[in-house]
TrEMBL record:
Residues 152-285 form the GFO/IDH/MocA-like oxidoreductase domain. Residues 21-144 form the Gfo/Idh/MocA-like oxidoreductase N-terminal domain. The keyword Oxidoreductase applies. Signal peptide: none annotated. This is Gfo/Idh/MocA family oxidoreductase. It comes from Paenibacillus cremeus. GO terms for molecular function: nucleotide binding; oxidoreductase activity. The keyword Oxidoreductase applies. It comes from the Bacteria. It holds the Pfam family GFO_IDH_MocA.
Amino acid sequence: MLVLNRAIPNQRRRMILNQLKAALIGIGGFGKSHTAMISKLASEGIISCAAFCEPNADKFEKERDILQSLGAQHYTDYRDMLKHPDLDFVIIATPIPLHKRMCIDALEQGVPVLLEKPPAVAIEDLDAMIEVQQRIGQPVAVNFQNTSSQSFLQLLQSIREGRIGKVASVVAVGMWKRTQQYYERNNWAGTLRYNGEYVLDGSMCNALSHLWQNSLLAAGAGDPEQAQPQWIEAELYKGHPIESEDTVCAKIRSKNGVLVHMYTTLCNENNDTPYIKVIGDKGELQWNYDQSLRLTDGEGKIHNFEFEKEDLMRNMYMNLIRRIRGEETKLFCDLAACRNFVLTANGAFTSSGLVHPIPEGALDIASDETTVTTAIKGIRELVKEASEKQQLFSETAVQWAVRTQRVDLRDYRQLQLG
Ligand SMILES: NC(=O)c1ccc[n+]([C@@H]2O[C@H](COP(=O)([O-])OP(=O)(O)OC[C@H]3O[C@@H](n4cnc5c(N)ncnc54)[C@H](O)[C@@H]3O)[C@@H](O)[C@H]2O)c1
């Protein structure tokens, strides 16, 4: 057993423990969750924290104090921070339009990255990041933490084992409620571009992006090559007074012939549990965001899988840490594994042309002393009907729906906004 001697200098203790030095860029917003995870892993002796970068640290005193108590040095410019002599990996938890530059700069300093999702929103940006990552060879893990759960991995394995026969389609539904307050949380929420960079913030590229990512992984049973999107028809709508979408339905054909139907909205009355159904010729699997998984076999018998509770963010950290230490070869979600998602999202914008505003008469808008809530009238019934029949909204009787174009994605290399 290893007994730690307090007299051993810090650097040597780190080497004995193989304790990696982390640095965090962005400590507010979701960076607060990263601060908590870094603090937890540091208290367990798994990592230490060398540095953090935050231009607005006075706004996040609690996180600043936690990180400084771990001995982390505070920077206000991430490029200065990247010159720190011994960083083992950097976590990037900043606004979406900053991801590409920060990730490439970290890689060019030879530093592995844990990058918040979405890695980028324009396919040309993601491709540039993949090119640098592959050239430099340092790992980039994308924090699509739902890719790491036992339940989701079991879903993929069950598909591969043929437990539902040949997969014909994937249907995913994500219906959440987001108020005006949500759109006021930062200055890029709900925008298409911010400071000249693409953001495409909405149900697809941000709030429910985990559902899109996992659905496209499920379409290929975990093999992105199989799930490459060939074409897409998508309808983008907005109920909130924003630039980007808050409601999307889409039909996607993947390379292996699987048809994917996606329905995501932030204009629901409540937060329903998002789910993905994978439909085969001998049964059906349903994976839910609460990490439950159900198999319905060809005879209609139901089998519920059991899983232990797990911390998905911890999974993502440990996976990258093991990868850096050489104990693991595969990341749960690398940059290349996000390409189908980003391509699909770009195709969805091109297909829809515009983000179509939903007429006020079709909305329930309620105000209280704190915020304004916008819901689409009858959205649950509409999504239920459309998802069961695998239809786009424009193929149902709903008045406000707009028919859109099919877009070929086989040679699509640059985001084209309508
Ligand atoms: N994995 C998840 O479940 C999950 C959940 C929520 C958000 N996110 C992602 O986290 C990322 C951040 O989202 P957010 O809502 O926290 O954003 P945010 O706008 O609140 O910013 C996060 C932090 O980055 C800091 N920041 C801004 N510019 C910076 C710069 N140049 N250098 C250093 N720090 C800078 C901000 O001051 C803030 O502290 C996004 O990619 C978002 O999609 C992921």
